[in-house]
Amino acid sequence: MDIFTILLYLDLLGTIVFAVSGLLAANGKRLDLFGAVFIAMVTAIGGGTLRDLILGEPVFWVLNNIYIYLVIATTFVVFIIARYRNFPVQLILYFDALGLAVFTVLGAHKALELGFSLPIAIITGVMTGAFGGVIRDVLVGEVPLIFRKEIYATASFFGGLIYVWLQSTNLPVEVPIIVSILFIFILRTWAVKLNKSLPVFDFHRH
Amino acid sequence: MDIFTILLYLDLLGTIVFAVSGLLAANGKRLDLFGAVFIAMVTAIGGGTLRDLILGEPVFWVLNNIYIYLVIATTFVVFIIARYRNFPVQLILYFDALGLAVFTVLGAHKALELGFSLPIAIITGVMTGAFGGVIRDVLVGEVPLIFRKEIYATASFFGGLIYVWLQSTNLPVEVPIIVSILFIFILRTWAVKLNKSLPVFDFHRH
Amino acid sequence: MDIFTILLYLDLLGTIVFAVSGLLAANGKRLDLFGAVFIAMVTAIGGGTLRDLILGEPVFWVLNNIYIYLVIATTFVVFIIARYRNFPVQLILYFDALGLAVFTVLGAHKALELGFSLPIAIITGVMTGAFGGVIRDVLVGEVPLIFRKEIYATASFFGGLIYVWLQSTNLPVEVPIIVSILFIFILRTWAVKLNKSLPVFDFHRH
User: Fold this and answer.
1) For residues A128 and A57, what is the distance between their CA atoms, to the nearest angstrom?
2) Which of residues A197 and C116 earns the better pLDDT score?
3) Residue B204 carries which DSSP code?
4) pLDDT (tens digit, 9 = 90+) per residue, C17-54?
5) Residue from the list A53, A149, A206 with its beta carbon closest to the beta carbon of C32
């Protein structure tokens, strides 16, 4: 399996898991099917859309309709399953973590491919990974996950840093991608599970 | 009246009704005149701005200042009327429904004109129609209309579908535009009036 | 000091003060360091990013990484200071007012430089000045400052108008910039201090 195939599959995987995380977040908001498609769409393609606009590239899903179809198909499937089975809402954390991991790395990768600098690649990675989830949370009226205290942007940032560093080495091209995705996903889910956080940003109280 | 004139008038109509819907939503938030201009502007030109950015086109209101002037003039007029008369807040639903209808069709039309595919045209239509209202609701701290249970994105989606299908036939160019606008407006207002909804998206409870 | 140097310093100043305003707004939300970087970044570069996208220009911070570094450095410094000292939260109003003033004028200036019309320059100015703060407030779940009753968008609007008018005169280039920045900052802080507002937009109650 060559690197382009891996990247395509990861992109489709990220699209599906973020679509599902959007649907889980919308649960209980009494959306109808196309309302659900809307929130799934915004969550799944929001980060990449922002990335492409900022980098001055054509928007990926306008060039290739598969992302649109995939979000719609995912919504239909989840919609049907949801009639019969109970999804634990905690699943959103895992789907969101996987989306964050995959899209951070793909965002950084795309910026580097286009010849942008390393810091821009890291920032683009964090924005691609975190922005869809931020829009999702704002739209459904939740405090964005990124603002809860467990490691979130931090995982994305260091994952992007690791990717940018590893891909400048002589390692086979799959390695930086896989290592940095695993790093983000494991760090984030571990932090949620153990309720770990970094020192928080809070002003001194006398 | 040729098709270009019709499209221009519809665009101006959509701008006015969405501006009014923004002002109605801001009612009670104690905005001053230019705060009101800001929310009216974002609501009225937000959807089309997103459409143009995503399609890689110059932003419409930067090319043609009439939209800006129209929003400002609408705000002044509503501001003055509001001193003397009581607007029933329910009006926002009709203004929003008309804006949704007009901008969905104009969004889909512009994408097709520029040679984009049919699915992209439908998605662009829904985004153009729904996005201004979503920003409006998020900014004033309301649950977006699109997330309340009556048919909303669904009306926009099927209206876009009808437009894309009808315009591929041999009907006179006005027909697809008028039919799909009426379809969206009537479906949406009927749903609000009768409190109709599609089956909602909610997970199975054991 | 020539005009380009002045503009660059103002841009850096606006970036710092908006970053600080983002950090002050995030206070108490228990963000970790990189969550704080994220909110500071969005606040400081959001307005200019929107401006550049709308004007069809390359995004400023992608061209020049100094803005990114500056936001990160500001966050680190504030993060450390915050451990030892208590910032009065009211400071956010002053930082926000200064950011509003500087970015309104820079936004209008950039649009004029690129040959856009006067009304577009004023609108671009208001959007550049107000948008970062609006995103900040939406993300942290506050009612946007722009929607509280003291003069806000109004200060930005008239400051932009004054700038656009003065720069068409024969005054030395620094004068319009300095006068309009001072105008916005003083009007806004005076309004907050004295709790001044314009007549608010509210429908007549019978």
Assistant:
1) 14
2) C116
3) -
4) 999 999 988 877 777 788 888 899 999 999 999 999 99
5) A149
Intra-chain end-to-end CA distance of chain B, in Å: 59
pLDDT of residue A205: 47
Q: Is residue C96 part of a domain?
A: yes
Q: In this structure, what are the phi and psi dihedrals at residue A197, rounded to the nearest 5 degrees?
A: -150, 160
Q: Mind telling me how many Å the CA of A104 is from chain B's nearest CA? A: 21
Residue A112's H or E segment, with its range, is helix A91-113
| C149 in contact with chain B, both atoms CB, cutoff 8 A | yes
Query: Residue C124's domain spans which residues?
Result: 3-194
Give the chain B residue nearest A138 (alpha carbons).
B138
CA gap A182, A185 in Å, rounded: 5
Domain assignment present for A26? yes
Q: What is the mean pLDDT of chain A?
A: 87
Predicted confidence at residue A149, as pLDDT, reads 63
Query: For chain A, how many structural domains are there in total?
Result: 1
The reply to whether residue A204 touches residue C69, judged by beta carbons under 8 angstroms, is no
List the helix and strand counts (H, then E) for chain C: 8, 0
Residues of chain B with pLDDT under 70: 1, 89, 148-150, 196-206
Distance from CA of C27 to the nearest CA of A (A): 5
Q: Tell me what pLDDT residue B146 has.
A: 73
Task: Please check whether residue B46 lies inside any domain of the structure.
Answer: yes
Chain B hits for A137, Cβ within 8 Å: none
Whether the predicted model's global pTM rises above the 0.95 cut: no
pLDDT at C205: 47
- Give the residue on C whose Cα is nearest the Cα of B80: C201
Q: Which two tokens stand for residue A193?
A: 């599970």
Query: Which chain B residues have a beta carbon less than 8 Å from that of C53?
Result: 53
pLDDT of residue C175: 92
Assess if residue C166 is contained within a domain. Answer: yes
Q: Which three-class secondary structure state does DSSP give residue C88?
A: coil
Query: Within an 8 Å CB–CB cutoff, is residue C146 touching chain B?
Result: yes
Interface of C with A in 36-95 (CB under 8 A): 36-39, 41, 49, 53, 58-59, 62, 65, 68-69, 79, 82-87
* Terminal C-alpha separation, chain A: 59
